[in-house]
Structures are given as C-alpha cells and as structure tokens.
Amino acid sequence: MGGCFSKPKPVELKIEVVLPEKERGKEELSASGKGSPRAYQGNGTARHFHTEERLPAPHPYPGAQDCVEAAICHVKDLENGQMREVELGWGKVLLVKDNGEFHALGHKCPHYGAPLVKGVLSRGRVRCPWHGACFNIGTGDLEDFPGLDSLHKFQALQLQRRTKVMAKCISPSAGHSSSTNVLIVGAGAAGLVCAETLRQEGFSDRIVLCTLDRHLPYDRPKLSKSLDAQPEQLALRPKEFFRAYGIEVLTEAQVVTVDVRNKKVVFKDGFKLEYSKLLLAPGSSPKMLSCKGKEVENVFTIRTPEDANRVVRLARGRNAVVVGAGFLGMEVAAYLTEKAHSVSVVELEETPFRRFLGERVGRALMKMFENNRVKFYMQTEVSELRAQEGKLKEVVLKSSKVVRADVCVVGIGAVPATGFLRQSSINLDSRGFIPVNKMMQTNVPGVFAAGDAVTFPLAWRNNRKVNIPHWQMAHAQGRVAAQNMLAQEAEISTVPYLWTAMFGRSLRYAGYGEGFDDVIIQGDLEELKFVAFYTKGDEVIAVASMNYDPIVSKVAEVLASGRAIRKREVELFVLHSKTGDMSWLTGKGS
Ligand SMILES: Cc1cc2nc3c(=O)[nH]c(=O)nc-3n(C[C@H](O)[C@H](O)[C@H](O)COP(=O)(O)OP(=O)(O)OC[C@H]3O[C@@H](n4cnc5c(N)ncnc54)[C@H](O)[C@@H]3O)c2cc1C
Ligand code: FES
C-alpha cells in the first residue's frame, strides 16, 4: 500500500476499496446471521442493554463491483503504530500504520461492534478494547476470540487481499449415513468454532454437530444480560450458513454413550453414529439448590433462551430472588431491576465477586447494585423454598429471614456435563472434567475435547492444569482442536479474557487470577472508573477494569507476547500516573 504522490503539496494517502465477490457472499450470510440489531433495540430493553451488547449492523459497504478511490489523509499524518478511523462517504475504515506500511480494515469489531480504533495495536494485530478479539492487520483475519468473523481487509494499493474462504462439504454420505468423518458433541462456542475452522482449513468431508438445545448455536453470554432476547436474535449463524457449508446440526440430540473402541456414539433415542474424529464439547450443567422445597415451580437456572425468557416474564412487577452473587447471578439481578418490583440477592460470601475480583472491587460493585435498589442478604444461604399452590412464594434463609419471592434464579456454579462419558475409557478427573493436553487431545487417540468441560495446561502460568469457563477460551480451544484433527500441531496459548455487563457498564478481565495475594488499584472505585491489577508474589497474573479502556486489552497483549508484568512496574504506574498513561506497559505512548 502506499500513497499516490501529488507534489508539491504534502503527500496524500489514497485508498482503493474493493470488495471481492466471495467476501461479499460471506458478508451477506453473516449480516443476517448475527441477528438483527434493530430487533434487539426494539424489544424495550434499552437500559440494561449496554451499547456494546448490541450486535453490529450490517455494513454499508459498497457492492462487489464497487471500487472507491479516496484521498484519506497525508502519509505523514500517521506515525508507525497509530490507528485512525477515516470517513469515506459511504462509511468508515480503520487505517493502520505499522512498520511504515498502511493497512485499511473494517473499523468495527465483528463481535459486538466495538470501535477498533480504541483498541491496542501490537505485534501486527489489533486487539479489540471490549472483549479482546484480535485481528491480523495484514489480512483482517480473526486471530483470537471471541466472535466468528474476520475483518474486511480493503485492497489498498500494494496490499495482499484476504484469502480465507470456507470449504463446502462434498461427501456423498452427508445427511443420510450412519457414519461421519467428524462428530462434535456440543454446539456451543467450542463446537461451532471447531466446525468452522475445519471448513476454513479446507476440510470438505462430513461434519455433524449435536446439541441438547432446540436451537442452532447461539450467543450464550447474552442470556443473563438480555433475558428478553429471542433465540433467533441470539443465533450466531443463520441456518443458510450451515446449509451452505454442509455443517449438519442435530438439535435435541443427546449423546448417552461413547464407545471409543468401535468409534461410535449412541443417542438417547437409540440412533447410532460412527465417527473418525470426535470432539467432546458438552460444556457444563448448572448446579441446583438441594434444600427443602427445591422442586417448587418458578425456580430456574439460566442455560437456554427459554429459561431466560420465562424468568423475565414471571419477574415483571413481582418479587425476584437471585441466589449466588457471581457473574451470572449479578447480571440477572441487574437486568431484573427495571422489570421486577423487588430484586434480592442471597450469597454465602461477605461481598459479591470477592474471590474473583477482591474485596474492594466487590464492595464498589455491590454499592452500584444497592444504588439501583437491589437488596443483599450476605453470609447466608437458602434453607427452604416455600410455595403456595405449588408456586414459589417465599425464600427462607439460614439466618431465619423470610424473603418474598415469585421467581428465583439460582446462579451457584456449574459442573462439567460429562456424565455420559463415565462408562467410556475417556479419562475424567475427580471433578468430572476431561483433562486434555495443549493440543486439546484426550487420552484416547482421535478424541479431542474443548470448552467448559476440560482442564488444560495454561501456557503462561507454567502449564498449570486449569479449567477456564469463558466464551473466548471455548472459541480458542475449538479452533486448536480442529487444527489438530487436521494434524496441524497447534497448541493452545491464548490469554484468558472475560467480560460482564451490568447497568450499562462493562467490566473487562484478562489473565488467570486464581490465588492472587494482592490487588493494586488505580483510578476511582467510587466513580467505577478503575483498573485493578491482581498480583501473586512479584507478578501480575490478571487485570480487571471499568471505564478504563483499553488497558485490559493492552495487558492481554503484553502477556500474550510472553512478557511478564512485574508488581513493581504497576506500583510505579499507580504512584506516578495521574493521567492513566499506559506507555510503561509497552514502552510506547498509550
Ligand atoms: C447465562 C450465561 C452467561 C455467560 N456469560 C458469559 C460472559 O459474559 N463472558 C464469558 O466469557 N462467558 C460467559 N459465560 C460462559 C460461556 O457461555 C461458556 O464459557 C461457553 O459457552 C462454553 O462453551 P462450550 O462450547 O464449552 O459449552 P456450551 O456453550 O455450554 O455448549 C455446550 C453444548 O453441548 C451440548 N451438550 C451437552 N451435553 C450433551 C450431550 N450429552 N449430547 C449432546 N449435546 C450435549 C449442549 O446442548 C450445548 O450445545 C456465560 C454462561 C452462561 C450460562
Ligand atoms: S466487540 Fe470486539 S471482541 Fe467483542
């Protein structure tokens, strides 16, 4: 790429925007598949539906034949390592200068539409400021998750064009045989990304995905942030996508047995399917209360759109109780404050999120909830659920307090959904997780596992075996599993990235903070504008922020580069930085 030189004036940078036919095909599919942002906005959920939770609108890019040449800035206007959004009349592009070269890319993250110009440019990729997805600036390809789509890469003079396309299924047995080349148990994030990666890598044999759900793969994290959302609004891809690429999805299809010797699974209805390669991505099952009255009506866990929709219907103008002040419970409580007459939270710990985010951050968030009229019952638990005519009426606490309740949401954790593997020779650990190596291989050759149900070696924490139940992690593991099915010898090396959204504010988190022994906070907790560094010994092991973008993405990039961040560096930052300048992290300006 470069400039078109028009002397003697300063050198103008011109961009030629060409959208190739095959990219356009993809665009059409994903635009409809990402659900309608208008539908989201129109469902009356505006307040809790943080702007970043809306899916991006279909791009107003020109058609396949269009070629736009526009002078967009002067070559010297951008320094190396800088990004800028430029308006081209029909829409914006993200212009990036790196190592003296210019690149022009789509300006919005395909995940939830974050402005990438506010992200972090590092090591030839831009990391999204909201949830950490990474895009290669040379190709626009998605390199780290969440999200499924890559960025448009605009042909800008000498730049290569985008090459990633997906294969279609050419297997004659597709759709009607009792054997498949790849069987994926679980159509969540890990399963879907595995299937898509196989097609992206040119795999054209049969792929079957199966799920307990009655829906095609959907955006599960939205369930607790937008309980009103309908399944079709949550869909990650439209049914045309699965048809186009020959990815078969068996809905309401529960696998009950895996016979690894004969490479065969049995479904609940007796149907049997043979496979050559198997991915286990069954995710987890929510824990339920075991107290007296646990069988009464109107007590829910949130796993499906139906659960979420029913909760919000029952809570409207009535009393809601949430048990468990973790991410899921707190997101539900926040969402219900606008709908319910009262919202109460019951929690064993003294402070919400304490184990994950520490006491001070937990207290600041608790205050935000109290200011939004959420009532907390802390350091207690439920002893009984009382009903009237079979329907929940009261939640009785161990502290003897009785709380009125018409609906109760239980968010007290989950267990791996691996019960169906107990009779197989696939190893499970004592908690029911499937241990895998860095290539997502189980102990059985040809059987891979990914997502919430696995423990795996976390590369940048000395290969400690961990379970990380995050949306982004499930994507990354699904891809590595697919690559290894194709003998590409890929290893999982992503830095964990998590987010939550409550009352229109987002909290971002990167790293693995288990066992932190100190928290260093910069910013103002009362104002909910802060960054918290979680340290263990001399090292930063995780970071969380609110209203402090893009620091979490920046830390994630540094950790992904293999550089450790020392506690002392952070202490100096907190001591000296009044401005929130983050140049100390990268050695460059922030
Ligand atoms: C309400 C909610 C909100 C969340 N919010 C966030 C968030 O904000 N950020 C974040 O990072 N993470 C969040 N998570 C966690 C995130 O959704 C998970 O980490 C992610 O979905 C894990 O992906 P997975 O593919 O491993 O499993 P899942 O997405 O759980 O998918 C599992 C699949 O396996 C299928 N399955 C299970 N057993 C069988 C069987 N025996 N036979 C056939 N199919 C089977 C299921 O039907 C499903 O299709 C949230 C989770 C929930 C429930
Ligand atoms: S909006 Fe970019 S990763 Fe979510």
Structure characterization notes:
It is a single chain. With 590 residues, this protein is α/β, with parallel strands linked by helices. The strands form nine sheets. Strands 11, 12, 13, 14, 15, 16 and 28 form a seven-stranded mixed sheet that branches. Residues 1-11, 19-51, 53-66 and 157-163 have low confidence and may be disordered. Helix 3 packs parallel to helix 10 (471-485). It is built from 13 helices and 35 strands. Strand 3 and strand 4 (92-98) form a beta hairpin. Bound molecules: flavin-adenine dinucleotide and FE2/S2 (inorganic) cluster. The site of FE2/S2 (inorganic) cluster (FES) has 12 residues, from loops. GO terms for molecular function: 2 iron, 2 sulfur cluster binding; metal ion binding; oxidoreductase activity, acting on NAD(P)H. One of its GO terms (cellular component) is mitochondrion. Residues 70-165 form the Rieske domain. Residues 23-46 are annotated as: Disordered. Induces apoptosis through a caspase dependent pathway. Reduces mitochondrial membrane potential.
How far do the termini sit from each other? 25 Å
How would a crystallographer describe the biggest sheet? 7 strands, mixed
Low-confidence stretches: 1-11, 19-51, 53-66, 157-163
Mean pLDDT: 86
Strand content: 25-35%
Helix content: 10-25%
